[in-house]
Amino acid sequence: MGKSLTQKILEKHIVEGEFKAGKEIGIKIDQTLTQDATGTMAYLQFEALCIPKVRTELSVSYIDHNTIQIGFENADDHQYLQTIAAKYGILLSKAGNGICHQVHLERFGKPGKTLLGSDSHTPTGGGLGMIAIGAGGLDVAVAMGGGLFYLTYPKIIKINLIGKLKPWVTAKDIILKILDIFSTKGNVGYVFEFGGAVNSLSVPERATIANMGTECGVTTSIFPSDEITKAFLRAQNREKDWIELKADEDAEYDRIVDINLDEIVPLAACPHSPDNIKTVKELEGIEVNQVCIGSCTNSSYKDLMTLAKILRNKKIHPNVSLIISPGSKQVLENIAKNGALTDILYSGARITDPVCGFCIGNSQSPQTNAISIRTSNRNFFGRSGTKSAQVYLTSVETAVACAITGKITDPRNFEMDYPQIKLSSKFHIDDNMILQPSANDKEVQIYRGPNIGQPPLGSPLSEHILGNVAIKVGDKITTDHIIPAGSKMKYRSNISKYAEFVFELVDNTFYKRAMDNKNKKIANIIVGGLSYGQGSSREHAALCPMFLGVKAVIAKSFERIHTANLINFGIIPLIFKSEADYSNVEVGDQIEISHIKEKLLTNKELTVKNITKNMEFGVNCNLSNRQRNIILAGGLLSYTKSLNR
Ligand code: MIC
Ligand code: SF4
Description:
globular; Aconitase, domain 4; 3 domains; Aconitase, domain 3; 645 residues; binds alpha-methylisocitric acid
């Protein structure tokens, strides 16, 4: 039987486990990436592992998230990251050089390699034929130290593209269609492998699709590496990094889904979830206050050239604020050199640094009750920094149409020919903002500002948990609900401070309640619905609850990265055996879970006693042997240290 592309790359990297869907495997990681918001903690943890140098082929530390410098905290963190990179053999991409996923695609990604990144959109590298996976910072720290990365051997869905996109319909509309089909829940343990008419899509377009596959909750998404990939790498002066990669003709898949590109129309994800899809036609006429173009989903040279061509000789609507964030310094320099930037500026747009910026809500928060059209990948409640804002996610083409007319507008209404953008055969490249590690690593002093704390260690699991339900939440709770980013993100390296904001968006009394329980030595329990922990890879969504004394989360189902993060920080993820039992627990109920170690070691169902309601229910804890040992040790850091002893 032939092999899929995913199988071929995983087979080359597997070190532990067997190729059976649902079983845990350990793979070797060739490349890692971190960004500053998750990176400071990842490197503090890396330091705690006491390894003298990274053991990967390539590790890059990007500064792209916390770039707003009001106060000393972010600038101090940047300096910490720069000295760490110099000392431990890591490349450093300075603030202003670009968004990690865009820069990695341009300068470092290689077909056939594995990439682990402390950011959930790391699968963007799948656009180049990599197995690129997002994970918590601690998993990335372990991989930098040469440790394996463990994942469930995935089920593979072939997304078979048929036909060709019509003018004004884009790769973004393809992935929005996929979100319409698959939704943001129920896809844990799958990989999307793209095949069929992929040769109509350039690498940046493939990357847009792979980037947002993350919103479905899949492990990763991957495209073949073909002549189009080769041309992209050649334009980046990296043709030597190219290899051809494709699935065998007779490869078998767990499922095949055909997507007919001719039938796709401009789409939008409506508030407050990337899977709340409507056609742009259905939304036409809604007045728009803000349009933001950029983010790691749609900020490539092709995106901004399309934008510039549409804006040429046009002015944006007076009621709209148009924000443009290029994906990288390379993109910005190229559109500056060829004059396209002038067309953008003349239209009345505001240009920001090439950073995450608006996407993570640490700048450009819209006005109260605003309608904001964005080309980014997430429109979770409150993420823009304005709770009352309504954020719609669209393609660049739709977004710019809205900026010009001041209303949600189907770009096909424009009376102009669809701009055809030819990708340069050679980009202007200048890597001066990527710093090489020091040749004198022993002499590098690590800079530690007052914002840098110590990574808290978990305590070994106890046999018995007596606790209170400190919060009960519904379905599709994202990590942005658990611990917001935006203006609070500057506390990423200061856990006791950052923990004050846990569940702030959902219930701002949580922190006080949790601390009261903690001070009385009562464990905190979180109760959740379906798909708990969607979205980002931020391990702070486990680390801060751990700091607040959360010992278990009981939910109807969990998302992949968040489950791993909970385990890494010694919090037990428990799944209701019967979803109906969700209604049998309320905030404030006293809960007892006994014989935990014994049940975990024998893989038996656990019993949760609701003392307040005088009733019991069953929960499952589906862990691999390795995960069980991590939980028993009180988390991955203690576990890894014990192995290295
Ligand atoms: C995001 O898009 O939510 C982030 C900010 O990039 C996160 C990482 C983080 O929280 O630092 C992600 O996607 O993993
Ligand atoms: Fe940055 Fe937004 Fe991409 Fe996250 S999704 S990496 S915040 S641009």
